[in-house]
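SAMPLE LOG
Freezer: B-3
Tube label: C17
Construct: single chain, 179 aa
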Amino acid sequence: MQRHLVEQAMGGDHDAFNELTRLHAHGLLVLATLILHDDSLAEDATQEALVSAWRHIRALRDVDRFEAWLRRLLVNACRQEARRAGRRRRSEVHVPEIELATRDVPGDLLDRDQLDRGFRRLDVDQRAVLVLTQYLGLQLDEAAEALGIPAGTARSRLYRATQAMRAALEADAREGSPA
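STRUCTURE (predicted):
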């Protein structure tokens, strides 16, 4: 079904593209939010990726690779938004939603906060490779394709991102432990 929609959209069918947008917009927004760690920037990046997809859909070479192509457009849009945000130097505080649970909620929030701080220390490219491989579960070569980079580069970015996260979490642990 999706292949048919992509082919129709490539022929200029607005309704087919609207249906593709409906099918993929939420997933793209989730990925952008994870990569950018900012809801408004993620919304802008998602919208920019979808606009770019509509403008360039006729250039899509392989109809079956539509999703990978769309993720690549999204990652590029996230990079653009991160650069723009860096120039603006906005500062926002994210307050996580608190769900009542029977588990150790304060411990969960502390863990989530530590991971969040570590994730914020990564650059956009490192966040992107982590999100694609760890959250989406893409294979490294699929993540590399979505990022538009060679597999070896994706592998090294993933390694550096993992090391940076580990160092950030260890630094937080040292700062939080009594002397």
